[in-house]
């Protein structure tokens, strides 16, 4: 669909949304504005009338922007408006009107029992009496979002560091302590926290934040993080096999962390590993120390120089082997985004993490 000039004020948003609603009504249906008392606080009441004369009132609440965390407050606000109207006259439906509503916000509105219209053409209005359902699809990205810092992502080293801290520790954080533990700037921490709060992945109370549900946070991170894409990787072959390689790795004093299937076997053993995934600060130096040969095909070792030192945070020593393995949350996200059978191994590790949260999640 053609995108019109960006609506600037709430009045612009309301006018455009009314046009969209009127344009999409079925034949024979009509819409007209109904006066609302000034003290009711209602932005607009629109009355729909069917060809047979049945009517339904739409109570429109206009917002320039809506985040997922706003939906419950908006639902309560509209419920107060509609409580008195519902006792007299036609049936009443609450409708959220905004400049743009993202797919997650639209889903949250549906779950809250709210109808909606946005200025890009996303619309869903539903009434049980009279029976009425109207839906159309507009934009899935805000067409009027200007240049500047991108939002809606957990890509990059600062985000990874903050997420790892929130996953690894089950605690209530002050921003200052989160900054110190994650080793990021205050600004970066606030940006990540704001995004996670909008996604309802953390709770904020009295200037403190906490992630009580770690699994949704881990899975959301896996949408933006990938073992290969978030590191500089190279492929190698260990000519004497993985067991001999791990013996040499365990004697290493440099910075490294085994991840993937080999690391997951510490908590949730799967099928025997056919390859090794290892984070290292210097792949060339590590390869020389471990006796690896560079290959383009037939590799059984992937060395990854990570964009973030967070992968080395809170490593532990494998009980059978003595080499360092990445923390469970890091191993899980690496497996979820890995090739072949890795994702299923990641799911098994997550199952173990769910059953043993007190074992791996520090206080």
Q: Could you give a quick summary of the protein structure above?
A:
The protein has three domains: 10-136, Trna Endonuclease, Chain: A, domain 1 (3-Layer(aba) Sandwich), CATH 3.40.1350; 157-222, Arc Repressor Mutant, subunit A (Orthogonal Bundle); 231-360, no CATH class.
Q: Could you tell me the strand content as a percent range? A: 15-25%
Overall average residue pLDDT: 88
Total domain modules: 3
Q: What share of residues is helical?
A: 25-40%
Listing every helix as H and every strand as E from the N terminus to the C terminus, the arrangement reads HEEEHEHEEEHEHHEEHEHEHEHEEEEHHH
User: What's the end-to-end separation, in Å?
Assistant: 51 Å
DSSP strand tally: 17
Strand order of the largest sheet: 1-2-3-4-5-6-7
Rg from C-alpha positions? Answer: 27 Å
Q: Please, how many helices?
A: 13
Secondary-structure class: alpha+beta
3D architecture notes:
This protein is of the alpha+beta class. It has three domains: 10-136, Trna Endonuclease, Chain: A, domain 1; 157-222, Winged helix-like DNA-binding domain superfamily/Winged helix DNA-binding domain (Arc Repressor Mutant, subunit A); 231-360, no CATH class. The protein is built from 13 helices and 17 strands. The chain has helices spanning 10-24, 71-85, 103-111, 157-168, 175-182, 186-198, 214-222, 242-250, 260-264, 283-290, 328-336, 342-355, 357-360, and strands at 30-34, 44-49, 55-63, 91-98, 115-118, 123-127, 132-136, 173-174, 203-205, 208-210, 231-237, 256-259, 276-280, 293-294, 301-306, 316-317, 324-325. The strands form four sheets. Strands 1-2-3-4-5-6-7 form a seven-stranded mixed sheet, sandwiched between helices. It has a five-stranded mixed sheet with strand order 12-13-15-11-14. Strand 3 (55-63), helix 2 and strand 4 (91-98) form a beta-alpha-beta unit. Helix 4 (157-168) packs antiparallel against helix 7 (214-222) and helix 11 packs antiparallel against helix 12. The longest helix is centred in the N-terminal third of the chain and has 15 residues, at 10-24. The model has no long low-confidence stretch (mean pLDDT 88).
């Amino acid at each position: 669909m053609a995108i019109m000039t960006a609506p600037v004020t709430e009045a612009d948003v309301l006018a455009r949304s009314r046009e969209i609603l009127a344009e999409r009504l079925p034949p024979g249906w009509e819409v007209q504005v109904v006066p609302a008392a000034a003290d009711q606080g209602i932005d607009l009441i629109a009355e729909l009338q069917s060809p047979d004369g049945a009517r339904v009132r739409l109570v429109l609440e206009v917002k320039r922007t809506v985040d997922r965390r706003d939906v419950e407050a908006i639902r309560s606000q509209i419920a107060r408006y509609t409580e008195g109207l519902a006792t007299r006259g036609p049936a009443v439906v609450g409708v959220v009107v905004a400049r743009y509503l993202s797919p997650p916000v639209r889903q949250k509105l549906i779950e809250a029992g709210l109808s909606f219209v946005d200025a890009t053409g996303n619309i869903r209005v539903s009434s049980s009496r009279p029976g009425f359902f109207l839906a159309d699809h507009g934009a899935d990205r805000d067409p009027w979002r200007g240049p500047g810092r991108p939002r809606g992502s957990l890509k990059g080293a600062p985000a990874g560091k903050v997420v790892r801290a929130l996953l690894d520790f089950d605690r209530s954080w002050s921003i200052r302590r989160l900054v110190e533990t994650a080793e990021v700037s205050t600004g970066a921490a606030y940006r990540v926290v704001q995004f996670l709060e909008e996604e309802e992945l953390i709770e904020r109370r009295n200037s403190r934040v906490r992630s009580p549900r770690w699994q949704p946070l881990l899975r959301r991170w896996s949408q933006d993080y990938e073992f290969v894409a978030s590191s500089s990787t190279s492929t190698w072959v260990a000519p004497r096999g993985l067991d001999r390689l791990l013996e040499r790795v365990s004697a290493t004093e440099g910075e490294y962390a085994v991840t993937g299937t080999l690391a997951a076997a510490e908590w949730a053993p799967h099928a025997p590993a056919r390859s090794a995934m290892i984070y290292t600060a210097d792949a060339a130096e590590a390869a020389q120390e471990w006796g690896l040969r560079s290959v383009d095909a037939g590799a059984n070792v992937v060395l990854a120089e990570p964009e973030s030192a967070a992968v080395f945070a809170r490593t532990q020593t494998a009980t059978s082997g003595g080499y360092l393995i990445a923390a469970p949350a890091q191993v899980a996200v690496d497996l979820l985004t890995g090739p072949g059978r890795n994702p299923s191994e990641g799911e098994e590790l997550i199952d173990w993490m769910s059953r043993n949260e007190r074992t791996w999640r520090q206080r």
